[in-house]
Amino acid sequence: MLDETDIIKRITRGDQRALEHLYHQYSEIVYNTLISYTKNAEEAEELLQDVFVSIYDTAHKFRFDSSLSTWIYRITVNKALDFLRKKNTAKRKGILSSLYRKDSGELQYDQSHFDHPGVKMENVEDARYLFQALSELSENQKTVFILTQIEQLSQQEVADIMQVTRKAVESLLQRAKANLRGILEKHYPERVMALPNASK
Amino acid sequence: MEDWKDKIIGSLSGMDRAKPPTDAFTEIRRKLANRTKPKEQNQRHWLAVAAVILMVISSNVLLLSNYLNDEQQPSYTSEYSGMITSYNLYDNEQ
After folding, report:
1. What is the CA radius of gyration of chain B?
2. Which residues face A100 on adjacent strands?
3. Nearest CA to CA, how far is B71 from chain A (Å)?
4. A10 or A96, higher pLDDT
5. Disulfide-capable partner of B15 in A100, A118, A183, B84 (CB 3.0 to 4.6 Å)?
6. Which residues of chain B have a CB within 8 Å of the CB of A197?
7. In the structure, what pLDDT confidence band is assigned to residue A170 with cuts at 50, 70 and 90?
8. What are the chain A neighbours of B28 within 8 Å (beta carbons)?
9. How far is the C-alpha of A9 from the C-alpha of A24, rounded, in Å?
10. Which of B31, B28, B36, B21 is CA-nearest to residue A19?
11. Is A85 within 8 Å of B64 (Cβ atoms)?
């Protein structure tokens, strides 16, 4: 069994079998993190490949001053955020119109109904609302929410990944949850109407 | 009663992990292999440039050495002026 230091050293020398070994260890967490950001399986797959290509390219820069999983999560989060920024820029530049079908005028790639493949059957609808609301959070709040609530990482691990203090992570998480409540109330007022006593 | 917003916010807890596609690593290998090709092409491009430069330099050297050799050769220029002084072949008939 190879330890992580050996794996990184071998990858630095261009050993693709070591990269494959690392892939089998981390591909699931990388893919799941990416799918939480993109809400699209194909985009998550494309980014998964990019993350491991980046790991292969930058293994020589890994200084062993953080854990390997922290470093891999950092690359993953950066790739996902870069991807979302580019996507938003493209939308702003007017490419948005091409996303609509000419015949019906509907969105071609409507991601509002993203169903995460791992969500329990009874939570599918709620998870759909949550993913929709998540896309309205700021980058940092989104990252903290995904890593602590979906990836189930500790606040200290998230602080290491984001290179901020644990206190900052705690504060970001509180604000993320408060904002999510506000977004859900704004977008789904029928829920408030249906359950008038629920939110008290 | 449970807050419906908290229920939504907590709806992802305990969910299973999604499995990445089985052929994803094959795609990674393919990307790495394709990426090395431009490097090889780049090397070939520079080899071609170097070959052209070498050819230009050697042809110039060849031309220069031929020119210098010509300078050292004795001149064979003959003077033929006056051999044909007149083209009037029937001059004497008149």
Report:
1. 43
2. A107
3. 60
4. A10
5. A118
6. 1
7. very high
8. 19, 23, 49, 52-53
9. 17
10. B28
11. no
